[in-house]
Write a structure and sequence with these properties.
The protein has 1 helix and 8 strands; from the N terminus they run ββββββββα. The model has no long low-confidence stretch (mean pLDDT 92). It is mainly beta. The protein has one domain: YaeB-like (Elongation Factor Tu (Ef-tu), domain 3). It binds S-adenosylmethionine.
Length: 163
């Protein structure tokens, strides 16, 4: 399936939509270099961390308008996690759970998500609070928080069906 570009849209050379490969759009800087010291989930009062965008997302316009959003969903690749566990026993639990019953980093596609507060932007660097990943974790995507986001386009019939 191909989508025509509209006036005002710009593109980067990247993977086709049907390719499952991911592109790292940046790198996350946090105070944590050791998994044991890393929080299990980000906290609203956690330390300030930074999202450093790579080119072409850094200066190509992909961040335009992001400052309008106080909260962002951040998706990242938990690059040091093993990917083969079907069941796992969380530390200090002593009980086995199915991988998909947990938010553990150990999963077939180790994607982590956090809702963060956007504190500021300096060029291609965003300052945020609310992360829980190791320093150097690859950044996959950024989206405005679902609850507060209002699509810039008028509603479509499908919006009514899904509520
Ligand atoms: N908030 C995300 C989520 O719910 O999808 C991630 C939660 S996961 C439980 C967070 C833990 O993953 C951290 O406490 C740390 O042990 C581990 N972790 C953080 N960064 C990692 C990385 N780059 N590779 C592997 N494990 C990581």
């Amino acid at each position: 399936m191909s989508f025509a570009l509209r006036a005002g849209e710009t593109v980067a050379a990247t993977l086709p939509p049907e390719a499952a490969g991911l592109v790292f759009i940046g790198r996350i800087r946090t105070p944590w270099t050791d998994r044991a010291a890393c929080p299990r989930q980000g906290r609203p009062d956690g330390p300030v961390c930074t999202l450093e965008l790579f080119e072409p997302w850094a200066s190509g316009g992909a961040l335009d308008g992001v400052e309008a959003h106080q909260r962002l969903e951040v998706l990242y690749w938990l690059h040091l996690a093993r990917r083969d566990l079907l069941r796992q026993v969380p530390a200090a639990e002593g009980r086995s759970y199915g991988t998909f019953a947990l938010r553990s980093p150990l999963r077939p596609n180790p994607i982590g998500t956090s809702l963060v507060e956007l504190l500021g932007r300096e060029g291609a660097v965003l300052r945020v609070r609310g992360l829980d990943c190791l320093d150097g974790t690859p950044l996959l995507d950024l989206k405005p928080e679902r609850g507060s986001f209002r699509p810039p386009a008028p509603p479509t019939p499908g919006d009514a069906e899904t509520g």
